[in-house]
Amino acid sequence: MKGQVLTITPLDYNQSISAGGSASDIGFIIGTTKAPENDISVISAVSDDATSSSTSPTTASQSTNQDPSQPAGETTGTSTPVTLIQGDDYLTTRGNQIVDQNGTQVWLTGVNWFGYNTGTNIFDGVWACNMQNALESIADRGFNLLRIPISAELLLAWKNNEYPQANFNQAYNSELVGMNSLEILDYAVQICGENGIKIMFDIHSAETDAMGHMTNLWYTDNISTEQFYEALAFLTTHFKDNDTVIAIDLKNEPHGKPHENGAIWNDSDDQNNWKHVAQEAGNIVLDINPNLLIMIEGIEIYPIDLAENSNYASQDASDYYFCWWGGNLRGVKDYPIDFGTPERNAQIVYSPHDYGPSVYAQPWFSKDFTFESLKADCWDDNWLYIYDSDTAPLLIGEWGGFMQGDNLKWMTLLRQLILDNQLHHTFWCFNANSGDTGGLVKDDFTTWDEDKYAFVKEVLWQQDGAFVGLDHEVPLGKAGNGIALSQISGSVDVKDQPETTVPETSAAEVSETTSVINESDTTSNSIANSEVGESIISTTKTDSPNAWFFVGIALAILLIGGGILVIINRNRIGKL
User: Fold this and answer.
1) What CA–CA distances, in Å, run from 57 to 46, 54, 280, 569?
2) Cβ pair 253, 214 in contact under 8 A
3) pLDDT, mean over the chain
4) How far is residue 123 CA from its own chain's centroid?
5) Distance (Å, rounded) from C-alpha 115 to C-alpha 431?
6) What is the mean pLDDT of residues 327-335?
7) Burial of residue 56, with CB atoms counted within 10 A of its CB: 0-12 exposed, 13-18 middle, 19 or more buried
8) Does residue 346 lie within any of the structural domains?
9) Which of 376, 441, 362 is closest to 406 using CA atoms?
10) Backbone dihedral region of 127: left (phi > 0), alpha (psi from -120 to 50 degrees) or beta?
């Protein structure tokens, strides 16, 4: 500190950025003896040779007189032990339904909360909220399943008794201080169990990286397919005696276009054949815990003519059907997943992802689309046929977005499909920092977006006005508005769910965030998925290929008043 300027030196793990590299998150927790009278502003960001600087201040955070030991409107969480009966809550399938061990049909209606894939090594947002309070609020709001994205790299580190630092606000989460990152995850699973939430882990990326989902496959130059299997085996073994964890999504959004080294689906043993790898991975998981549901996502492209192109040799986009990353499950009809026995195959759930025009302007959004046109142009042939033919259940692992224009229209139509068929789903997402969809909570990860929540609430499992959990003994949540699975009467019944109405929009009314199709030679079957990337701070390339940069941040602070905790965070954006 010199005068009114505080210079911050990065820690070892993020102090060096290679030429042309980038830093996705910059955040600070600053303790002061007096509160700043004015806003804190970033006035410069310089490299080690001091050749770059900002030209204008950027407001980074507003001052507050909040007690740093407590988050706004919350109290520091403490877990009240609940006696859990282990082993009675695992699920299996019957035709296109998911059922419990008594044969009772259930409805998985959940939400995603990412962070264990991004480098935070904990849920994102625990920099601004108390983790236990957030998990309890998810239960109290009626979500009975939590999909947790995680990286294979982090799992492999834990397997080797290495524990990357979990980045969280210690003042808001004092109970986590002293725990390593795996112990914090175990604690989160405990909280979920005590609140009636079940968990589905999702191997979101091979490497720990907020942009790791952009990588086509489950392996990279640094993580092999065998290591991917090892990560799954470690995860399954670690929770094999805990039926709070009921499912594993083997890999998030395998994808790739014809000219790329992308995921394929056929009967080969090619390294990039997702169907083959999913079978191997699923059997590895079931060898350890035969009771887990195995979620299998689709890919991006599928050959139109199998007789001529089943090996994906063609690089011509017009030879393929395209869909969302993870959304193309056409291959199940020709090459279904087979784990080798009827008992193991009964654990299969196919899990497509589906998004609206605010994520990408797919061709089926180019007209005044309707429920029937979306079924005909996308849903039926890519994945809904699996449910309609009674082949297996479906769980839509990701769906969601901004509540405006044609995106809201698409969300409403997909919600109707979910409601009409009781399709299982996990909404994307709880996080406030998903740039191309938004989240269910605001930036403090405590205040809920009530309009978006009310929208999703219509497809949360409810009976007689109570939210239904998936634990036979523990009611969902502690607000008194949830019940345990043993308390339901009959099978899944949505007659009490409110009817949905589709907002009136014109074909031209599209969200301002809608991407533009910029491929000159595209058809309704050959539009590639595009995702909004993460907002990053990039270093400038220099003439020296071996140059290394150090990021320094100077903050102008006026110190007047009482104690304060200031958090400045560069939020990640992008559908992770």
Assistant:
1) 14, 7, 53, 16
2) no
3) 80
4) 10
5) 9
6) 98
7) exposed
8) yes
9) 362
10) alpha
pLDDT band of 85, cuts 50, 70, 90? confident
DSSP reduced 3-state for 36: strand
Which of 136, 253, 531, 534 is labelled catalytic? Answer: 253
Instruction: Give the Cα separation of 150 and 120 in Å (integer).
Output: 11
Q: Would you call 484 helix, strand, or coil by DSSP?
A: coil
Choosing from 136, 398, 531, 534, the catalytic residue is 398
CA angle at 51 for the pair 46 and 57, rounded to the nearest 5°: 45
Collapse the DSSP code of 131 into the 3-class scheme (helix H, G, I; strand E, B; otherwise coil) and give the result.
helix
Query: How many beta carbons lie within 10 A of that of residue 372, not counting itself?
Result: 10
Q: What is the pTM of this model?
A: 0.77
- C-alpha 488/C-alpha 338 separation (Å) is 33
556 lies in some domain: no
Domain extent for 480: 104-487
- Rounded CA-CA distance 75/60 in Å is 26
Share of the chain above pLDDT 70, in %: 70
**Both structure tokens of 379:** 């849903």
44, part of any domain: no
What's the pLDDT tens digit per position in 69-79?
333 333 344 44
Locus of tokens 């300027």? 5
Per-residue confidence (pLDDT) for residue 175, from 0 to 100:
98
Which residues are CB-contacts of 499 (< 8 A; sequence separation ≥ 6)? none
Determine how β-strand 109-112 pairs with β-strand 145-151: parallel
How many structural domains comprise the chain? 1
What separation in angstroms does the CA of 124 have from each of 117, 121, 569, 573? 9, 8, 11, 12
Pairing of strands 293-296, 245-249: parallel
For residue 213, being part of any structural domain is answered with: yes
8 A C-beta contact, residue 125 and residue 169: no
User: What is the band of 212 on the pLDDT scale with cuts at 50, 70, 90?
Assistant: confident
- List % helix, strand, coil for the chain (3-state, nearest 5): 25, 20, 55
Residues 6+ apart with CB under 8 A from 190: 79, 244
Q: Give 521-564 pLDDT, tens digit per residue.
A: 333 333 333 333 332 222 223 333 333 333 333 333 333 233 32
Say whether 253 is catalytic. yes
pLDDT at 304: 98
β-pair partners for 98: 93
DSSP state, residue 559: B
What is the chain's length? Answer: 576
Q: Is 61 exposed, middle or buried (0-12, 13-18, 19+ CB in 10 A)?
A: middle
CATH code, domain with 309? 3.20.20.80
Clarify whether 398 is annotated catalytic. yes
What is the rounded distance in angstroms from the CA atom of residue 533 to the CA atom of residue 408? 22
- Cα 144 to Cα 122: distance, rounded to the nearest angstrom: 20
Cβ partners under 8 Å of residue 96, min gap 6: 386, 387, 388, 390, 391, 392, 393, 394
